[in-house]
Amino acid sequence: MCGIVGWMRPGSGGAGGSGEASAKVDELRRFRDRLAHRGPDGVGEWFDSSHGVALGHRRLAILDLTDASAQPMVDSESGVALSYNGELYNFVEIRSELEGLGHRFTTRGDVEVVMKAIVEWRERAFERFHGMFAIASWDPRTSTVWLARDALGMKPLYVTRGPWGLAFASEVKAILGLPRFRARLSANGLGEFLEFGYRLGENDTMFDGVERLAPGEVVGVRDGEVASRFRHFKPGLPDPGDRRTGDDRARELVVLLEGVVGQHLVADVPVGLLLSGGLDSSLLAALAARRCSLTTVSMGFTSSTHDERPWARRVAAAIGSRHIEVSIAPEDVIAEIQSNAWIFDDLFADWGTVTTRFLYRRCRELGLKVAIVGEGSDELFAGYPVFEDIGGGTGGLAFARLYRRYSSRRWGSLYSSFRSVLRELAGQAEASLFETVRRFEVCRQLPGNYVMKVDKASMSVSLEARAPYLDRRVAELAFRTPMEWLVRDGTNKWLLRKAASLVPSLPAEVAWREKMGGSIASSWLDEVPSFREFARERVLAPGGFTERLGLRRPMTQFFSGRAVLPFPSRLSHLGHLAWRLLLLELWSEHYDLRAAA
After folding, report:
1. Which of 38-52, 151-165, 339-353, 388-402 has the lowest mean pLDDT?
2. Cα separation of 568 and 546, whole Å?
3. Which one of 120, 277, 381, 491 has the fewest beta carbons within 10 angstroms of its own beta carbon?
4. Is 433 exposed, middle or buried (0-12, 13-18, 19+ CB in 10 A)?
5. Which residues contact 508 (CB under 8 A, 6 or more apart)?
6. pLDDT bracket for residue 566 (50, 70, 90)
7. 368 alpha-carbon distance from chain centroid
8. Is the pLDDT of residue 16 over 80?
9. CB-based contacts of 113: which residues, under 8 Å, 6+ apart?
10. What is the pLDDT of residue 62?
């Protein structure tokens, strides 16, 4: 796991003098080292001056801790150069295949496997990778820089065009440090953030002039310009001819998850698992405990009615893990959110980012360098109420109902944008409303918001978070599963629950109990005076976004307790807006964007 940066500049035409070369090295190092938090264990850079290509790397060492796996890595025969951020979980199998084709390896990790796979299969290599990754690879055989992102979008990769040609980086904050780059807040992005909490477009960011690769996207760059784009992964559809029973499907899922979890445990550093006590993390913990002695960590919250720690303790006792609890208070969150707004560089509103970062940092203090997490199962296996509430076919009324669910509708005005996204997804889903919603959850909401939380929060404290449910193979199985085996007899996530019931070490009631849900920060806005007062002062500060956007009146009503329309429990639509405005104020101050609004 690492941070990568680089560029391709058109018409470079030669190395230039020593002074020019030294300036380029210094520029790349400044660009790269804005991501020092992603990789404190090593640094590297590589140049091809004749083609204007530069690659930079910050290393978080997880596999093969020796310098042999340092990056950028260059193949001595083909000249292919690689800067790679991620983990390839099937690297042992791919290495064996490549050895059969005549390739020889000098390292024990996955980096050399990724590089040799690109040497052998070029841009078709990415579809073979089961893992999370953002990749930048220079192939001198075709004078192409290949940029690629993993199937479910766990690792981000941003690009921008300017005097530097085409530049790319693992985080926007590196791009913001490029010479002559002027940060401009996207007006459309601001509207979508306030209404949905993230950008709806797969390639859109909160900054004009900065794009991100979509999940599963590959981009080829020649002479500083995009020459090709394609997807190495697209969600499939259920096979109507597959008549297997639920029991057969559940057994298949258990076997797959056990293998995937086993690969996610492979590391040369200590690995732990974040255990909430809910179905998703408990199933992963039970499968992981079959493979090794396991450390589990759970998070609890003071001054909140939301606490699943008793369930986590019960699961930990059942599977025999070494269990550790972390307690977080409102004061901790206030300190975190004020000092660390920088981690929201491509602004998104997931309530859990701040508390999750606190937990990840505690994991590092406990000696863990990798944490297995349960993100992705609700979206893939239909765990949200929206999947149970879906009515008839696609079209106007159905899309309007979904808009009311997903947007902050009391001030929302982006229905046409939302409808366009759903129409595109409905075409991919062959007009099935269930599959349209699942694609929206997996392909838009998950990478735009929830997975951003996992990546930004974990890497900000130099910890690798691994999400087995977001493995390509698990996603492919989930998309092959029809609605009847996901929402069944009034029960959501039925297939995953059935699979969990087949694992003997897992308490049976864990598999079938209801999801607690809810958001800690949202309950604190309602319940904790100190947190509410902190948010009120920042959101209602004179001259801020609240005032300039004409939202002072509803926010004043919210903080005075006169707001109505609870949603989905205590959290009102105005509560959503209050949290987003709070993040917006803190984020814009850090990145000096208030004047650009």
Report:
1. 388-402
2. 23
3. 491
4. buried
5. 501
6. very low
7. 20
8. no
9. 88, 91, 94, 95, 98, 105
10. 97
Transcribe 364-402 into DSSP letters.
HHTT-SEEE--TTHHHHTT-SHHHHH--S-SSHHHHHHH
Pairing of strands 210-212, 271-274: unpaired
Q: How many helices (H) and strands (E) does the chain have?
A: 24, 17
Asked if the model's pLDDT at residue 556 lies above 80, the reply is yes
Backbone angles phi, psi at 166, to 5 degrees: -110, 120
Residue 474's nearest CA partner among 442, 447, 512, 450 is 442
Lookup result for tokens 């990724």: 114
**Do 273 and 469 touch, CB atoms closer than 8 A?**
no
Question: 253 and 495 in contact (C-beta within 8 Å)?
Answer: yes
User: What spatial distance separates the first Cα and last Cα of the chain, rounded to whole Å?
Assistant: 35
Query: Mean per-residue pLDDT for 145-171?
Result: 95
DSSP assignment letter at 566? B
Give residue 563's pLDDT band: very low, low, confident or very high (50, 70, 90): low
Placement of tokens 């974040």 in the chain: 274
Which is nearest to 521 in space by CA: 358, 403, 377, 365?
358
Q: How far apart are CA 146 and CA 136, in angstroms?
A: 6
Q: So what's the pLDDT on residue 522?
A: 59
Cα 105 off chain centre by: 31
Per DSSP (E only), the strands in 503-549 are: none
Angstrom distance (rounded) from CA 343 to CA 170: 12
Q: How far is CA 291 from CA 251, 284, 520, 524, in A?
A: 18, 11, 33, 39
Q: Which two tokens stand for residue 171?
A: 């985080």
DSSP-derived 3-state class of residue 295: strand
Distance (Å, rounded) from C-alpha 273 to C-alpha 263? 14
The tokens describing 24, both together, are 């380029």
The token pair at 261 is 């979890």
Non-local CB neighbours of 129 within 8 Å, separated by 6+ positions = 88, 90, 94, 114, 117, 150, 472
CB 139 within 8 A of CB 146: yes
Question: Which position has the token pair 């394609």?
Answer: 230
